[in-house]
Amino acid sequence: MKRLFGLSKGKMIIVIAITSIVTAFVLSVGLDTKEEGFQKKVVSKKVVSKKVVSKKVVKNVKLVSKKPKKKIAYEGNNIKRIKKEIDSFMKVALTESTSCEKFINDEIQNPDYIDPKSSKFNNANGILQKIDALAHAVVRNNSTQAYHFIEKIIYHKEFYKNKLDVMNIRNYLAKIEVCRDPKLFNFLLSSIEAANDRHWKPAVRSKLHRKISKYFLQDLEKFPSTITLAYSTQYLKGLVLNNFIDESYREEILTLMNEVMDHQMYVINSIAPENNKEDNLMVLQEDFSQRKFFGEKIKSLFLRVDNEMN
Q: What is the pLDDT of residues 165-223, one digit of tens each?
């Protein structure tokens, strides 16, 4: 089969699925793909029913932030102050975007780096070094602090009292999703595919996975966004397809992928500008809680895989 921009058919399916998730998150439109047996399947939006949103307020989630880049000052009762704090965090968070995106583009400017058949992947040590460089460059401390701040303020009493626009908060979440260019993720997938095709030694394959795993574990713990959950489960799927882990993991990974997709479809179908703002807020709170839950489940699976490959 002919390749498009150096992508195999299997890789293109993954790119399409990821792109759908990213687009849906930013634009809040419906998702139309679901993983079943690791194959793409079109899902009718009519089948997706809206769940009943509990009227109970989700309990505040206790968050521990180490050495915050900016002091979180949301305890006051002034809603204008809260909005000002959000805007301030946005400016700080977005400063990370320019530098890391430039680094990604400089490091992966050649399409060969997303083609596992390319000679670029003949040098295993070179690929490991590039992953180290990229992992260091895409750390997003400011964006993570912004994420934690937003998670806290959605439980603030002023949010209820003034009924802050949940749609704006969703837009903020999309804006701080920086340094996660799909090109970077495709490079990571190509690396494990190349390692399998070239029969890299077990010790080298294990080292490759540990480096990539560290990259995902950090986000799963501190920034379990929709994109983080999608990328991490797709990577786990890649481990099965490229013989890094046993086939017995397939069903568990598949279940997680479908649960994450179902949840995101539910959120997209339940939050809308025309809805009651209080209902939108409750769905947003549920979204944060559920993504944290998924993050822990996926993190646990990564740790099991890490332990098995040591």
A: 888 888 889 988 988 889 999 999 999 999 999 999 999 999 999 999 998 999 999 99
Of 2, 307, 304, 284, the residue nearest 164 (C-alpha): 284
Express each pLDDT in 224-258 by its tens digit: 999 999 999 999 999 999 999 999 999 999 999 99
Q: Which two tokens stand for residue 137?
A: 């460059």
Q: Which one-letter DSSP state was computed for residue 61?
A: P
Closest by CA to 256, choosing from 201, 186, 304, 194, is: 304
**What is the crossing angle of helices 226-241 and 9-27, to 10°?**
170
Angstrom distance (rounded) from CA 82 to CA 117:
51
Q: Which residues contact 255 (CB under 8 A, 6 or more apart)?
A: none
Local structure of 191: helix, strand or coil: helix
CB distance 302 to 233 below 8 Å:
no
Phi/psi at 39 (nearest 5 deg)? -120, 150
Tokens 């680094």 belong to: 103
